[in-house]
Specification:
By secondary structure, this protein is α/β, with parallel strands linked by helices. It has 12 helices and 10 strands. Strand 4, helix 7 and strand 5 form a beta-alpha-beta unit.
Amino acid sequence: MHSLLKLFTRKRTHLKHTAHYNLIHAIIRSCLTLSILFSLHIICMIHYEGLNLGDATWLTFTTATTVGYGDISAASTEGRLATILLLYLGGIFILAKVVGDYFDYRLEIRDKKHKGLWNWDMHNHIVILNTPAHAGERYLERLVNQFRLSEKYADTSIYLLTRHFPQGLPHFITELGNVVHYHGNASNSDDLAKACVNKASEIIVLAKNEDDESSDGRTFDILHRLNDLKVNATVLVECVEDYNRERLQNAGANRVIRPMRAYPEMIVRAFVTPGSELIIENMFNSDNDEYRRYDVNINHLAWSEVVTRLITHNMGIAVAYIDKNTKQLVYNPPANTMPNLQALITISKDNNQFSNDDIKTLVSKEN
């Protein structure tokens, strides 16, 4: 059954390509036939009506296009008969056919572009491979939107290579601007070439399923195909299992991050500020570094002094505080801020176990 479906799909693709090929050649043949008919009519008008080349050409085109100014017309029997045979019965019909075929060709091109069957010629663009299995449309919308919010990538073209949109991209993605797609498989070298990966500046390989370890195997295969195509772009990949990170890096990945569907900003940060994605990623786990909250009241020290005292005594790095008056979190305030702290948020190593009393003692000391 699978073989029959595969054969049917190939046949449909072949028929589409054949129809496109035939349409182009039909237009070419019709234009050649039309040129011959027009040339014969011009010759007849010169021979039977005694017109010069300019007037004969003018009469031929005004008659064929049914404009019919009437300033020049065929008067002889032979000239009128030539007009009937060459233009009325032949030229006008073929001209209408050429126009019809041309509009069919334009509609076919538009349909191909909409359904991801058009080969776009791009360079210095972003290529996004795969679509997440769960809520993929909305994730891509947010990811593209994050690129658009970045000054560096506000106008950069984005090329999606995915099988997820056979009937065209959703309007909420296309309306973000400069976003196209190709309906193909990221594990197929031909489809990768059609996405112009060898001309791209950045390539993103999304994990098909962020909960399935086998997604890393698919990513590994894609990386090898990108290497075969001699890609020079910065390649970012999502890695489901941490023990596959080094393997993916050795396969050619420049950036490796965990799939975090709630935070597409991480991918953009990885390109705009390389390395920051690791800091963001580190916020979501308790390996080595950990965020801590100390409920202490501080209102007599500048923020720079609070930070300096903590670092000097190896008690962590102050990153934010809770304002006693507004109860709001203030993150990374200016150095000269004189905060009225209700609580202090720090980041420190796991082995740094300090209590509220330790922090109170430290900040209450005089300089």
